[in-house]
Amino acid sequence: MATPEKTITSLSVTENPPSTDLNNDGKQTFIDIGIFLQNMLHNDARYDFNQDGKVDARDMGILIDAGRH
Ligand SMILES: [Ca+2]
Ligand SMILES: [Ca+2]
Hints:
It is built from two helices and no strands. The protein is an all-alpha fold.
């Protein structure tokens, strides 16, 4: 188990998907869905939960799924 001598100068930035908790209250509710609906036409990356470059019904599905826990 040889560890390669490699100096890591910069850590690659992990692109975390945006949080589905849009109003930051710790849960996914119809309030978050409402916020999403108000903003989905703007195609804002903040609401692009699956990071496919557009904000659409699939992202809303992710938000609804997140609220089912
Ligand atoms: Ca919320
Ligand atoms: Ca998307």
